[in-house]
Amino acid sequence: MITQWRKSTRSEDHGNCVELAALPHAIAIRDSKAPDTGHLTLTPHAFTTLIHRAKQNKLNL
Predict the structure, then answer these.
(1) What is the DSSP string of the chain?
(2) How many Å apart are CA 31 and CA 18, to the nearest integer?
(3) How far apart are alpha carbons 12 and 27 in whole angstroms?
(4) How far apart (Å, rounded) are the C-alpha atoms in residues 36 and 25?
(5) pTM for the full model?
(6) Using CA atoms, how far apart are residues 1 and 53, in angstroms rounded to an integer?
(7) CA angle 26, 28, 34 (to 5 degrees)
(8) In this predicted model, what pLDDT tens digit does every residue of 3-56 receive, in sequence order?
């Protein structure tokens, strides 16, 4: 299976962005500047929660 990564249309031109890929049972996230360093894999529910919390500025980093 070839993973097709996509970058947001809101990404900056100089590479400060993340890329997403839809996997059979998960969503993968990676740094576009370092695509060979690995990726984070989240369940669809966890990904939805991440996006929701990010939009509310509640990531608690």
Answers:
(1) -----EE-TT--TTS--EEEEEETTEEEEEETT-GGG--EEE-HHHHHHHHHHHHTT----
(2) 5
(3) 22
(4) 21
(5) 0.78
(6) 31
(7) 170
(8) 899 987 777 766 678 899 999 999 999 988 888 999 999 999 999 999 999 999
